[in-house]
Amino acid sequence: MSNLKLSLFIAILLVAVPTAFSYDYLKLALQWPPTVSRDKQFYPSSMDFTIHGVWPENFLGPWPLPPCPLQNPYVSITDSNLLSRLQVSWPNLLGSNDWFWGHEWNKHGGCSEAVYNQTQYFELGLELKDRYEVQKMLGLSFIFPGMRVLLSDIDGTIRYRFHKKAEFGCNNGPVFELREIRMCFDPSLALIDCPPRSGPLVCSAQHVYIPRP
User: Fold this and answer.
1) Packing angle between helix 97-108 and helix 80-89, nearest 10 degrees?
2) Rounded mean pLDDT of the chain?
3) 27 — phi, psi (to 5°)?
């Protein structure tokens, strides 16, 4: 292989494959509990969107990002204040909280570990969720649980309130149910348009139903 071809090959690898601590933007994934789980014992005490994860992503290359090398694997959280906040805003809607938090950190934390340690990573998710009160914004546009609505209406609400384009996930089936609303942030944590994506993780339905708790 010539030096030129080798240089081009390495350049393509550097773009297409994320290196440790490398990302272009962060994606905050918020999930609607009644779509994710029918078991109400896992619901937060005050019904609201909860955090699925904070996911470092790149504009080019594989999506979602494969796990990046992790210097510090997950350690169970013992800070009582952080624990209480996570239990409300970032619960596992299907089982063990500690397992879920470990999964999110070990899978996604490595790509941002040079910027956020484990505690800062979870605090960041909580801060971003509280900064953008998605359910409140939907309510101001008269979009409530129990309604079947145009996905474009939800998208329009997000654009009107936050001036940026979100990404949506839904459960497939005879009735498409809204599962997630995802918002994107640049490395300085400024809200940006989520880049256009397609595939099974992105909702392509025209109408979605928002299940009641």
Assistant:
1) 90
2) 87
3) -115, 120
Q: Determine the pLDDT at residue 65.
A: 75
User: Tokens 């708790």 sit at which residue?
Assistant: 213
Nearest to 72 by CA among 113, 115, 125: 113
Q: How far apart are CA 78 and CA 92, in angstroms?
A: 17
- Token pair for residue 23? 């990302």
Record the pTM. Answer: 0.86
The enclosing H or E element of 179 equals strand 177-185
Per DSSP bridges, beta strands 50-57 and 167-171 are: unpaired
Contacts of 172 (CB under 8 A, 6+ apart): none
Q: What contacts 14, CB < 8 A, 6 or more positions away?
A: none
Please give the structure tokens belonging to residue 20. Answer: 């440790």
Distance CA 73, CA 60 (A): 26
Q: pLDDT value at position 32?
A: 96
Q: What pLDDT, on the 0 to 100 scale, is given for residue 22?
A: 74
**Beta-ladder partners of 55:** 27
Q: Is 15 helix (H, G, I), strand (E, B) or coil?
A: helix
Nearest to 56 by CA among 13, 8, 7, 115: 115
The per-residue pLDDT for range 163-209, each reduced to its tens digit, is: 999 999 999 878 999 999 999 999 999 999 999 987 888 998 999 99
